[in-house]
Amino acid sequence: MSFEVTWHGHSTWTVTVDDTEFLIDPFFDNPFTEIDPEEVDPDHVLITHGHADHIGDADRFEGTHFVATPEITGYLADNYDIDDSTGMNLGGTVELGDAFVTMVRADHSNGLDTGYGASGGMPAGFVISDKKPTQESDADATTFYHAGDTSLHTEMKDVIGPFLEPDAAAVPVGDHFTMGPAQAAIAVDWLDVDTAFPMHYDTFPPIEIETDDFVREVKATGSDAEVVVLDGDESYTLAE
């Protein structure tokens, strides 16, 4: 089983589990990526919420299968002519190709497209695993958690960490609109992951930070997680 993640800047990730490729929050108009959306050919596009900096390039993937809340999949159908979609909600798990995708809670706002329009339902994060999540711990499973845009919330400690058991997590660290380095570090500690990736920073002036602050804050929690600060379009192998 191979499992690779690639950061394209902001909250945009490609996640490849064996022969199945996911694209999360397509927004390529950011300073970290040099990839044109047409260069990416995912099997599935996952949308955490409807803000323009997460859904901005959705129209470039017409004909691809989308996964989001029913409110967002309906919006995509009405405004982007995207009809191949699965509407799901928090707590649900769907099997997609070689992976299982669980939608989990994120604490954020969720206006569609502009951030001030109709509601996209609950904002979300996604947990992607090569094994179906059950109450029985599986040491052979490889699992990646994309936290979406979120503040710190106790479900990370009470549900996502102990029951979904992510090995790695991508957490927003830019502050202002999401967690900053200190709260994101607490999230990493609560999740008990081996690897932590910062995201959602340095795209716009309000979310400019020093990633060294995040590294220092993770160490201050006592977590053993390795903080990996990826360059734009850089990949990291979780399993092979």
UniProtKB/TrEMBL annotation:
HAMAP family: UPF0173
Assigned protein family: Belongs to the UPF0173 family.
Listed SUPFAM superfamilies: Metallo-hydrolase/oxidoreductase
Keywords per UniProt: Hydrolase
Pfam family name, one: Lactamase_B_3
Zinc-finger as UniProt keyword: no
Chaperone recorded as keyword: no
GO molecular function: hydrolase activity
Protein name, entry field: UPF0173 metal-dependent hydrolase ACFSAU_02960
